[in-house]
Amino acid sequence: MDTIEGDDIYLEDTEANVVRGDRVKIGPGCMIGRVIYRSDYQKDDKAEVQTSLTM
Q1: Closest CA to 17 of 37, 38, 35
Q2: Cα-to-chain-centroid distance, residue 51
Q3: Which end of the chain has fewer CB within 10 Å, C or N?
Q4: How does pLDDT run across 28-44, given as a tens digit for each residue?
């Protein structure tokens, strides 16, 4: 998947280049290139995120 966008995002076992949202929680099994968030970001220890930044 290329890009995932939304206000409240919770993902598990997902691969994506970009995840963009207000509140983003990356759960176990995810492989994400970049997370862009506005107010809250959480990442599970069993997830991979290359970079994260705020809007």
Answers
A1: 35
A2: 10
A3: C
A4: 999 999 999 999 999 99
Burial class of residue 1 (count of CB atoms within 10 Å of its CB; 0-12, 13-18, 19+):
exposed
Q: Tens of pLDDT along 43-54? A: 999 999 999 999
For residues 13 and 54, give the distance between their C-alpha atoms in angstroms, rounded to a whole number. Answer: 23
In 3D space, the residue among 49, 44, 39 whose CA is nearest the CA of residue 8 turns out to be 39
Whole-model pTM? 0.95
Taking the C-alpha atoms of residue 11 and residue 3, their distance in angstroms, rounded to an integer, is 13
How far is CA 5 from each of CA 18, 25, 45, 47, rounded to the nearest angstrom? Answer: 8, 12, 22, 18
45 contacts: CB under 8 Å, gap ≥ 6: none
